[in-house]
Amino acid sequence: MIGNTKLLNLNSRKIGFAISLSLLIPPNIGINFYGVNLEDLPLIFLLIFLLINKSKKLLITKFDTYSIFFISFFIVYSNLFTQNFKLFNQTNLRFYFYFVIAYLSIDIIINTNSKLLDLFEALRLVMLGNFLVIILQIQLPGTIDGWILSGYKFSFLPPGRLGGLQGGGPNVIGIICALYLLICLNKIISSKNKINYLFDDKVNSFFLFISFINLLLTYSRGSYLAFFIGLVVIIFFEKSITRKSKVLFLTSIVSITVLLIFIAPTIFLKQSNRLYLSSMAINNTNIFTGVGGGFYVKEVYKDYLITLDDQTLLETFNISYDEESDEIQKYDLPENDNEYIEAFLKLNFVHRTGFFPRSEIRFYFSNDGKQWTQIGSRFTTGTVINLIENNSYFEVGGWADGQSPDNSYLDGFINEVQITTSTHKYKYEFNEENRDQSFYVFLPNSKDFYDNRNDGKLIFNDKGLKLIRPRSYWVAIPNINSLSNKDFEIVLNLYLNNIPRGNETIFSQSSILSQNGQINNQSWKWSIVNGKMYFFWIEDVNEGYSNYLGGQSLRSEKLIINKGYLSKTQSDFNISQYDEITTSHNGFLTMAVEYGAAIVLIILLSLVYLIFKNFNSKNKIELGLISIFIVQNLTNDLIYAPDTAILFWMIPFYFLGKLVKNR
After folding, report:
1. 621 or 353: which carries more pLDDT confidence?
2. I want to staple 556 with a disulfide (CB 3.0 to 4.6 A). Which of 33, 209, 310, 376 is the partner?
């Protein structure tokens, strides 16, 4: 009989092996039956064996009662209190699946006096597999799988980052690496002679090394932070370490962290959309009802997604909107093409700010030059931007000296420009009296003055100087005071009859014309691309304007004209932002949107209670592991990821099982 086979004698290691095997199979390969593929098969077989094993024992314990009650309650709640009921909802079924496997696995571990740690030990297979991905730089289909070719580069390490075999991307494989790295370190920390243990247990030291390399090359800031939190937890509970040593360790960790931030600021300090995404989720959260499992993206990002065409929306997200809502949301706010409106635009550049120095850029608009509205949020690379020194002219509105793209010019009237630094303020008014005095009009690609008699009449009126097709002339302002390595602010007073379309330069310091005998390189430019603000700058002259901030971000916003006044709206959605909106948000907050805040609060309070009741040195590694999960889940929805969700729920069920057993 099957019940007598050794295969059914499940234990922690066999359960861990099945979970690890699923993490070594690339995603979306195979059968694709109702969302099930090859990577799911090890877990499905595991569930079958767990159910068979449970059916052999008819005794119902308190642990069974509590676990079954929780799972049943969640099943009922997730189907009744939802705005979009869907029979056989895949997201709901996933949660039921995670809960049941975690419950039945812990039931075996508790009843056989096994160790939960043995289950996590099997992750060494995942570490080995992903280390080979790094060595061989194995690329997989998709944008976040296998070895990802990207601009990430740290010291002698290969360019790119680890996305993992499991298909969840750098953050998911990052948390798995953090878990196993903590397990390896825990063995060393718990040993009597910690230095000797490194050499005595060579297998552990080997996996310690490759886990560290794997984690490092994910470049996942959330995983780095989560790992250090978990490490602090196990050291806090380790009795063999003196209080003085613990203080020294914490001081060292803080010092090393600060040093790493200075060495690689773009990894730790670069801008993130997570806070913005979280605020959108909070606005879509109700107390008792949710939008339904799997409807998070469709409901929260509706205003963005409807900017995609219907076919792309269906093929990429499997989402469609009804015609009524589609028409309402896609309504294009009209732009006034018949008369000019007064408009003020401002660029604010902060060269160096913060305890960890970095440059920040903000964009603003105003209808009166007094009340300013920010366009999007602040933008930063996490590093200090040192603009190339350039003593040639500033350029207003576009053609520059031949360096801007064709038709990259600002259409309208330029009335006034203000340039402000910490020590100086300059004001330039564009009227006919000031021509060739405080500003100049030159022929393209030269410093030859524009001649009204031979080259055509310039248009001046009470709105200022008319900016027309760039091949005619370009407008220059003297560069009296260098802006390199300084904070500065540029304010333009314009008259516009439309929002500039395409890629159009507003203001720049990109002239390469010689000034005072000095040869100049291009430096920076402020542009508007389809209504979105950008700041481009050059670090390597050969690479040109390859560096930019603004625009391509959900935190960016689009400038529009509405009812004769400047206004703003959210940016159009770009398909390259797919991974960001589907993974980069708080898992508990996502759950609150889909199922309601009440049930998530119940789960969180229960989790806190179980941690509190098991808060002792005997459970230090489990407490360290759950700390890693919780911290990482605050920035990524790990409780939704099939790669980590089962491992996540194992620990609360384990704490529950121990608590019931002790009683």
Report:
1. 621
2. 376
